[in-house]
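Training component of the fellowship. As part of building independent skills, the fellow (R.M.) carried out the full modelling exercise for a liganded target. The chosen ligand was uracil. The inputs are recorded below so that the supervisory panel can assess the work.
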Amino acid sequence: MGKVILINHPLIEHKLAIIRNKTTDTKTFRENVNEIGSLVTYEITRDLTTKPVQVETPIAMTTCQQLAKDVVIVPILRAGLGMVDGIHNVIPTAKIGHIGLYRDERTLKPHSYYMKLPPVLPDATILVVDPMLATGGSAVAAINLVKQQGGKDIRFVGLVGCPEGIAMLQKHHPNVDIYLVSVDERLNEVGYIVPGLGDCGDRLFGTK
Ligand code: PRP
Ligand code: URA
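Fellow's submitted model of the complex:
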C-alpha cells in the first residue's frame, strides 16, 4: 500500500491559507503554489539515494555525495504546471515530462490529450505532480502512462487531497507513495474537494 506522507510546516500552512482564500488574485495564487512546491521538495526527496564523487576543493581532494539517479518531474496539465518551477528551482538537474489530461465535467473521467516524457524514465525517480487529488482518476491515468513508458520509481506529489482520491490511487498504484500538504474532508457532488481551493487550473491561469 502506498504511504500517505502529510508534509507539515508553518510556512506551508501559511501559504496554504493564502491559496485557499477565494479573494487571492491570480499572481499571488501562482506564486504561493510555486513556493509550496519548493518547500515540499525537501521532504519528497529526503530519501533519494546518493553516490560518492571525488571533488577537488581549493584546498584538498575530498569525497562528496551527489544524486545517484536522474529525477524527472511530470506535471499533469494544466494545474501541475503551477508547481514545476518551484520544484525545479530546488532540483535544477531534473528533466521535465508533460502529461495533458482534463476531467470530463459530467463523468469526472480523465481524458488524455498530450504526453511527452524523457527517455530516462526506467532508471529515474519520477515525481508525478498535480496539486489536486480529487477522485484520483487523473493521477491514476497519468501514472498508468508513466508506467507504460517504463517508469518504476514513482512518487505522487500533490497539495490538497481527500480520502476518495487517496483510496483510488492506493488501489490502482499500491507502490506509489503520496505526498500532500492537506487531506481535506471529502468530495462534493460535482467532484470538487471540500473545503479545497476551487479549480486550481483556472485559479493559476486566470481562466475563470
Ligand atoms: C483538475 C486538477 C487535476 C484533476 C483532479 O484538472 O488539476 O488534474 O482535476 O481531479 P481528479 O482527481 O478527480 O482526476 P482539470 O481536469 O480541471 O484540468 P485543468 O488542470 O486543465 O483545469
Ligand atoms: N480539480 C480542482 O482543480 N479542484 C478540485 O477541487 C477538484 C478537482
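The panel noted the following from the submitted structure. The mean pLDDT is 97. Residues 4-45+69-205 form a domain with the Rossmann fold fold (CATH 3.40.50.2020).
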